[in-house]
Design goal:
This protein has a domain of about 60 residues. It is built from 4 helices and 2 strands; from the N terminus they run ββαααα. The chain has a two-stranded antiparallel ribbon with strand order 1-2. Strand 1 and strand 2 form a beta hairpin. The N terminus is likely disordered. Belongs to the TacA antitoxin family. InterPro entries: Ribbon_hlx_hlx, TacA_1-like.
């Protein structure tokens, strides 16, 4: 159970809310300026922005390594669904004809 000074992350591990450790980095002026501009846009300090960004990236890397353990039958069913022809439907048609947000 988490104590009041801890929160549970998406990875189900408690993380201390108190910050009693430091990380020192050496970066170029251009990198620092870019980080500062992005932090300002999000209304965060440089430290908050860097910590949030590094923490999110660490979660992403770890979650990308998730292993799905299935038996041979379930794996073959999964492969069959991937290889099966697409069944046309209205949702798929809309998805494939919609303009991408970045276009």
């Amino acid at each position: 159970m988490s104590t009041p000074s801890q929160q549970t992350t998406d990875l189900n591990k408690p993380v201390s809310k108190t910050r009693d450790l430091s990380i020192n980095l050496r970066i170029s002026q251009n990198q620092r300026d870019l980080i500062d501009r992005a932090a300002t846009l999000q209304g965060k300090s440089r430290s908050e922005f860097m910590l949030d960004s590094a923490y999110q990236k660490a979660q992403d890397v770890l979650l990308d390594r998730c292993l799905f353990d299935v038996d041979e039958q379930k794996f073959q069913q999964f492969l069959a669904r991937l290889d099966a022809p697409v069944i046309p439907n209205e949702n798929l048609r809309q998805l494939l004809t919609a303009k991408a947000p970045w276009d």
